[in-house]
Design brief:
The chain is built from 13 helices and 20 strands. The protein has 375 residues and is α/β, with parallel strands linked by helices. A hairpin with a 2-residue loop joins strand 1 and strand 2.
Length: 375
């Protein structure tokens, strides 16, 4: 049952797919319905957080002892993804305890380092997929009138082997893949098409405004909305990982004031002069934290802990009790500002704001503070 949404990339149409989170939620729905009603669903449908319907035929659906098992095959569309074609399986059974318990089985990784979406020891099933799974199971419970407890175990056949071709081992997720996705949809696009789209959007805004806010993605737009900064009449452009190209486009368009707002996990890389923040090109977050911490007086043990941390938030957690967090952030911000100014040139005032989903606003460079006060 093909998923028929596509996006245009130049003169090509690229077919979209759906995330492992969507697959897990669909599988949980099918297994729960079989367990509670005995109904073998020929097709399963849900509405993703993006608002798109996804309908699939189960690859596997049967009773297994006192549990029901349903598998949904991952379809990544035209996106290059190691999870494409893998079976995401949900095993659902009744429990004496109330509520819905969600956990990972074989092929789903476990979090071993702090700072990730889930706590240490938990299955690497991220927050939005957990919500999607719970929503689907709760809906079936409501339909069938079931008010007892259920356990949902998500597994991935071949997940442990596939995870070796991802960044999971380095990030501190061991034993398998992660169940991911915020929109529920995989939208493929060539890198050049993304850059061209960003440049076009900057050009369009540049015809009407000489002020611009750049942010890498959804975390940034959510932060801007929470701060109310998106209501100041300054256009906002999402630049994905292509910060350098976005800065170049802003310079060409004659942008006079540019504010970069991003999560510390992305913008810390800019402190090292890295202008494409995708992990396949550079993932030196902990190295940069380590170097700037050393400059601020951190001892060898602290530097080693930073080097081994899984995420930028985990680095901040290490620095906080040592009263080094603000000093290191100030040092990183100074380096970020220097590299941004070097890239965009002298005709544009540029500044940066960094935040964390855990710690909130972390800091801003002096030009960023000045611009926000003016705006």
């Amino acid at each position: 049952m093909a998923f028929d949404h596509s996006i245009r990339s130049g003169q090509r149409l690229l077919r979209c797919g759906y995330t492992t989170g969507t697959c897990a939620a669909l599988a949980a729905q099918g297994a729960t319905r079989l367990l509670l009603t005995g109904m073998v669903s020929r097709s399963i449908t849900l509405i993703t957080p993006k608002g798109w319907d996804v309908t699939v035929r189960p690859a596997l659906l049967h009773l297994q002892g006192d549990a029901a098992v349903c598998s949904v095959q991952k379809d990544a569309g035209d996106d290059a993804d190691v999870t494409n074609g893998l079976a995401i399986t949900a095993t659902v059974q009744k429990e004496k305890a109330s509520g819905i318990q969600i956990d990972g089985g074989k092929g789903v990784g476990r979090v071993t380092k702090p700072g990730l979406d889930q706590p240490v020891g938990a299955a690497a099933i991220n927050r939005v997929p957990r919500q999607m799974i719970a929503q689907q199971v709760e809906a079936v419970c409501k339909e069938s009138g079931y008010v007892g407890g259920l356990s949902v175990i998500i597994s991935i056949e071949g997940g442990e082997e596939a995870a070796q071709r991802t960044f999971n081992p380095q990030m501190g997720v061991e034993g398998g893949l992660s169940i991911l996705g915020t929109s529920g949809i995989v939208e493929p696009m060539s890198e050049q098409a993304i850059v061209d789209t960003i440049s076009l959007e900057i050009h369009q805004h540049g015809m009407n405004s000489k002020r611009l806010i750049l942010t890498p993605g959804n975390y940034g737009t959510d932060f801007l909305r929470a701060q109310g900064w998106d209501q100041r009449g300054v256009p906002v452009v999402k630049c994905s990982n292509f910060l350098g190209e976005a800065l170049d486009s802003a310079a060409v368009e004659g942008i006079e004031q540019l504010l970069l707002v991003g999560h510390i996990g992305k913008l810390v890389k800019v402190a090292g002069g890295i202008m494409n923040t995708h992990s396949r090109y550079a993932d030196c977050r902990t190295e940069l934290f380590c170097a700037h911490a050393a400059l601020c007086g951190a001892d060898t043990g602290t530097c080693r802990a930073l080097q081994q941390a899984a995420t930028a938030d985990a680095c901040l957690a290490i620095l906080e009790p040592l009263h080094l967090q603000q000093a290191v952030l100030d040092s990183l911000l100074q380096a970020i500002q220097s590299h941004l100014e070097r890239r965009i040139g002298t005709q544009c005032q540029i500044g940066a704001v960094v935040f964390s989903n855990t710690y909130g606003l972390l800091g801003m460079t002096p030009p960023a503070k000045e611009m926000l006060q003016q705006w």
